[in-house]
Predict the structure.
Amino acid sequence: MLNVIERHASAALRQRMEKAGCAFDFLVLAPEAGEAISPALHRRAVDQLFQSIRNLWLERHRELVRDPRFAGAAPPDMSWDLDKAMPRPLDSQEVAQLLHVDKDERNPPPFALYQAYCEPPYGTRFVDDSPQALFKDWLDLLGLEVGVEVLTWVDNFNVDWLASDEPDPARDPWSNYFEDGLEWWGVWCLSIWNPRRRLLSVLAASTTD
């Protein structure tokens, strides 16, 4: 059993991030006391995030069709098959890279989370928060710090899949959520286990212009 926690803090932080233009979805969970932390539990956490994203999309669609101009708009189509996902644990250096508050415009390293957070396709506009302060608040809520266990769920994706005619399993990612990001910007899906705080958090991003 995974329980959604930090609901109020998550809602407040999500609002701040959306106002700034950040592209990430996330969920903060906690396992039941004594429950073993396994790849299967990480997989359940990812599934809960994707259910949450789909519910959010449907809620936004309900708001949209209240306007007569968009009354005939089709509901969003979002599907996923986690049996196809191939997670990989990050090593300590890769986890450390997630925490870096810096950017390399010419050659960003893998897992440059801060850069992706700051630079979605339409850019960001930090008015009420500094980028670094909001990023650190987000990492703290997620429990993303040194010593945590992180799995990436999109490591096998070929981000250049549209540019090649060669057969490639990455042409069929495990969710159509990732299709936008695979056009060029990139995709993210991480699950994060913090044993000190007993948090199992999940983040994802996929967007285009």
The chain is about 30% helix and 15% strand. Helices lie at 7-20, 39-65, 92-99, 113-118, 131-142.
